[in-house]
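User: ok so my PI wants both of these folded by tonight, can you help

Assistant: No problem, let's get them done. Here's the first:
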Amino acid sequence: MRTTEQKQKRRIQDRKYREGLTPAQREERNKKAREYNLLHPGRTTEQSRRWVAKNKARYNKYQKNHRRTTRLKAYEILGGCCVHCGETDPVLLDIDHIYGNGNLRKNRNSDQEVVSGRINREQLQLLCVRCHRLKTRTNGDHLRSNSTHSEQPESHDAGQMTLF
């Protein structure tokens, strides 16, 4: 069994090794990892579950930090302030779906999609909590169901009032 000091030393060595890889070497390493995962389905998933169960506090701390940094990056990409009143406090900012179609994306992470570029950023804007509530209530977005809502309206006006 390795001591904590030995484990730390090994992690540092591994990190230095990975940082020194060329893109071709990195791709080859990733290819081998994918092949391993295909040959041993479920094994890495089970290993991950065991690690998370064993290191719950560490995992939660990592996830919280990752969500926070992702959200801040998304806010920066979207301008960093409320488009209506100029509020800049990240605690008070929300990502708003301009066309009111946020209810179609309930199980998605808008922050991550903004940072990765998987979502059209032209359909999003930053609003503070107050302005977001006002826009949602005025447009009636909170009353819409998934079945009556299209992914993107044909025109910007498409039957709704756009405040901002």
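One down. Here's the second:
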Amino acid sequence: MAAHIRIPSFVRRSWRAWRTGLVAVVAAASLSTAAAAPQPARIEGHVTGQGGAPLDGARVTLAAVDAPSVLVENADSEGAFVFARVPPGAYHVTVDIHALHATSGEPLEFEAGKAYTLDLPMVPPAASR
């Protein structure tokens, strides 16, 4: 025969209140953490050479100005690249392919949750004169 323990009603009420409060605190903490994390930016574009020809294999680098963060993508056969999740902030953009190297003079600012398109023409030094 099982023993029955009678729990006083004030204990049952306080347990319910404590459990409800705990659930509310955990839910609030989850929401504040999600709200505090900024949405990443999305950056896509094309790397082209003379005459607008796509540059397959060009390496596009985003180097954060205020953090030790470096993101690298390689352009595909169409010269296209995509950075799907870039933390908001200022970045120097660099493109390298074979002997060509180009860097953005001023950093570019990417805002949270926005999408950007960068078309990056690479012109050899002799052709740019």
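Helices lie at 9-36. The chain is about 20% helix and 40% strand. Good luck tonight!
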